Amino acid sequence: MLCRYVRKESWHRALVEIPLKFLCHFTFTKYWKGSIGQYFVFENVHPHPFKSFLSWISLETLDSSLMTKSISLPPQVRQAVLRQLKDIKGKITDGRMWLCEMGVTDLDLDRDIFYGQTYARYIMTWHIATSICSIGLTVPSKENASEEFVKNYVVATKLSGYCAYLLAFKPDLLPDDTYRSLSIARGTLHNAREYLGKCKSNEEKYKKLIKLGSSKSTDYEVGLLSEGSRIAVYFIDRFVDMEERWRLLAVFWANMMLYIAPSDRAVAHATRMATGGEFITLIWALVAHAHIIGKVQPPGGMGDPK
After folding, report:
1. Is 298 within the bounds of a domain?
2. Which of 219, 7, 211, 229 is CA-nearest to residue 109?
3. Does 106 reside within a domain?
4. Which of 77, 162, 208, 265 has a Cα at 20 to 30 A from 218?
5. CA distance 69 to 149
6. What is the CA angle 194-69-165, rounded to 5?
7. 303 band by pLDDT with thresholds 50, 70 and 90
8. Distances in Å between the alpha carbon of 279 and those of 61, 77, 165, 196, 272?
9. How far apart, in whole angstroms, are the C-alpha atoms of residue 134 and residue 71?
10. Closest CA relative to residue 225, chosen from 184, 196, 188
11. Of 113 and 62, which is predicted with more confidence?
């Protein structure tokens, strides 16, 4: 309304100015409430019958409320993203390049899983891998964890849940095609329900997913579950020290937030700002001021690491 007021001289009169002053004085929504959405595929493998009924009668319009939750953005998450932006000195790239340069992943894993992936597949694959690593943690290991481990665990899991939330319910804020994002999110949930539907506990889910990742299956019926499981198995086998494993995952997801923020979705971000805003919108504005505009990756997915 303010933009229209400035542009139209015919509006520069008391009849318009008084209502505008009233609206500006009494704000009914905050620009950003300091919260982020969370969505985890494996937590929705066994939907509650009542939630399934509500989803059915609402033609899935209530799925965002039924399958997600909102949490206050942990300060360590915000710090991790800003620290990563400072460390890379504005040279944003996909996290797999950093993993290769640090010697964390080998080229065989990289070529098989990462080559040519789109943003949506990239996010979902790593969300699955991170979720499997999280499910594999036992209660004693969490209770005896160090402060650094807890911090990295929070950063990795909360950003993983937030990126999956954006993919499934706010795809217009991501640089990928909206239909592709929704298709991958819904298809992965369907595959997870088919593959893990008979599992009665997280332990059963974990064992079945680890077996899938170890078998290096390429069965299209499990889709990205196979690729995510392979990454999880690789991390679990190579990094027995859980502190190091979650340190790497935390850095990776902080980089992921920077990687998916630049886009040409200015209208979508501006619209979201007017109705509350999103964490990714703030990062988008930040990198845009640093003249990082548009998709970071070339068309058609990520290139060869060489």
Report:
1. no
2. 229
3. yes
4. 162
5. 24
6. 60
7. very low
8. 23, 11, 12, 32, 10
9. 18
10. 188
11. 62
Residue whose pair of structure tokens reads 């845009």 in the numeric block: 288
CA distance 153 to 138: 13
pLDDT score at 241:
87
Q: For residue 97, how many other CB atoms are within 10 A of its CB?
A: 17
Residue 5 corresponds to which tokens in the numbers above? 């007021």
3-class SS at 54? helix
Give the residue, 243 or 22, on which the prediction is more confident: 243
Question: Which domain does 123 fall in, by range?
Answer: 31-289
Count of structural domains, the chain: 1
Task: Write down the number of H helices and E strands in the chain.
Answer: 16, 2
Helix (H, G, I), strand (E, B) or coil at 238: helix
DSSP bridge partners of 71:
36
Asked whether residue 12 is domain-assigned, the answer is no
Q: Is residue 246 part of a domain?
A: yes
Q: What is the pLDDT of residue 13?
A: 86
- List the structure tokens of 266: 């200015």
